[in-house]
Amino acid sequence: MPASKQTLAVLHRFLGRFVDIAPQEMRATLLGFTWFFCLLGGYYLLRPLRDAMGLAGGEEELQWLFTATFLAMLTLVPLFGMLVARFPPRRFVPIAYRFFTASILCFCVLIAADVQGMWVARVFFVWISVFNLFVISIFWSVLADCFSNAQGRRLFGFIAAGGTAGTFVGPALAATLVTALGPVALTLVAALMLEIALQCFYRLMPRSAALPCANAHDDANSTPAPKDDHATRAIGGNVFAGLGLIVRSPYLLGLCGYLLLHTAASTFLYFEQGRIVASSFADTASRTRFFALVDLGVSSFTLFLQLCITGRFIRHFGLAKALLVLPLASALAFMAVALSPTIWVLAAAQALRRAFDYAIARPAREVLFTVVAREAKYKAKNAIETVVYRGGDALSGWISAGLGMVGVGFAGLALLAVPLAGLWAALSVWLARRQEQQLHARNATSTHASRTSTDAAFPS
Asked: How far apart are CA 125 and CA 51, in angstroms?
């Protein structure tokens, strides 16, 4: 047995204790794990610096920064749609990733030259927010393309743990490097990690027709992973097809609603976090350290959940309960911060909410995309997770600012959050049911097509 196969066999015996994984799924799963580790490790190197620089002009500027991020998304999504329509994934993913690598290196040059004025801080906040959503959305699109629905239920939690390991390493490096070498080191290491992530993509989606996970075992009622040449076949369609697909699909509109409620809760808590942190810490360095420590706490708890809980939770309790975790955690976080708006209550509430989001709700949400058409996996999904997400950020930011101007504080927002969490929970159950319906319909269509092909090949 070759050394690489021996290594995979040893790893399979170890991982099999925690994850329901077949030997032939090991390579693709570990590539996804490493890819996500590099993505979130690189982002979390930059996130504490981004959050600290976002407060450079005061917390009252945050709604403007969120609006600018949304406008940047509106500009980039049609360009990305053009790439998806004209090139296969093997071409457009490297173009997108290396574009963001080049942009990070540009900020590296500016920071090295000590060009760190107010506008550099603002642009850095916006651009890193754009970068994060784009590269992660592309990652999950590729995984939804390569893994089947049943594989996603079993394996996406473990793959997401790779990202969580990155969120653990990223803040630790950020807290260390920013003190010893300054922010230039953060940008250089982040660019290197993005390039390593791209190399994982090349190996996960090679030029050959047989994908690494195509022959992996599936549950009996699932559709096998696609076996056609995904790497070299362009997706085609219109540049703006993503938005059109969303408007015509109640299922995709439901996903938009879920994400809008998610981003509204996140934004309201983020603004309250900005207010509390700005009043608790006087300088950028201490704020950066606080954000890094919170990220470390989130990463530690999330990693434990993903390695020991997520896969079994989704498989045994189903997608509906996995999606319900986030509305419930968000409602509890709002109530806790409203009752005691202190820095440590805020840190604990945010840490628990984000951990349940990353560990359980996010993998479950990505499984929802495994049942949609291939064009929707790249175009509609990208539009939902960039334009819709950041549009929700911008709208929520202005709502928060407007309510503050008329005297409605965070306690008032917490009262509003409870009924919205109920709506969010109902939408979660509906999405899970529609996912099951679409999965069964797709399986029935696939079975019928297979029988028709067999009858044609062997006529009676």
From this structure: 7
Report d(CA 318, CA 153) in Å as an integer.
9
20-37 per-position pLDDT tens digit: 888 889 999 999 999 999
- The torsion defined by the Cα of 152, 157, 163 and 167, in degrees rounded to 10, comes to 160
Residue 401 burial (CB count, 10 A):
14
| Helix pair 62-86, 241-248: axis angle to 10 deg | 100
Q: Is residue 81 within 8 Å of 242, Cβ to Cβ?
A: yes
How far is it between the farthest Cα atoms of the chain?
Answer: 82
Residue with tokens 């290396």: 98
pLDDT at 460: 37
The pLDDT of 59-66, averaged and rounded, is: 71
The predicted-structure confidence for 348-361, as pLDDT tens digits, reads as follows: 888 889 889 988 99
Question: Sign of the CA dihedral 356, 360, 363, 367?
Answer: negative
Percentage of the chain beyond pLDDT 70 is 83
Long-range contacts at 92-96 (CB < 8 A, ≥ 24 apart): 93/138, 93/142, 93/198, 93/201, 93/205, 94/198, 94/201, 94/202, 96/134, 96/135, 96/138
Lowest-confidence region among 80-84, 248-252, 280-284, 332-336: 280-284
Give the Cα separation of 322 and 81 in Å (integer). Answer: 31
User: How do residues 134-176 score in pLDDT, each as one tens digit?
Assistant: 899 899 999 998 998 889 888 998 999 898 888 778 877 877 7
pLDDT, averaged across the chain: 80
Q: At what angle do helices 311-339 and 343-356 cross, to 10 degrees?
A: 160
414/339 Cα distance (integer angstroms): 9
Q: Which residues contact 205 (CB under 8 A, 6 or more apart)?
A: 89, 90, 93, 142, 146, 211, 230, 231
Question: Any residues with CB less than 8 A from the CB of 283 and at least 6 apart, and which?
Answer: none
**Residue 402 clears pLDDT 60, i.e. is over it:** yes
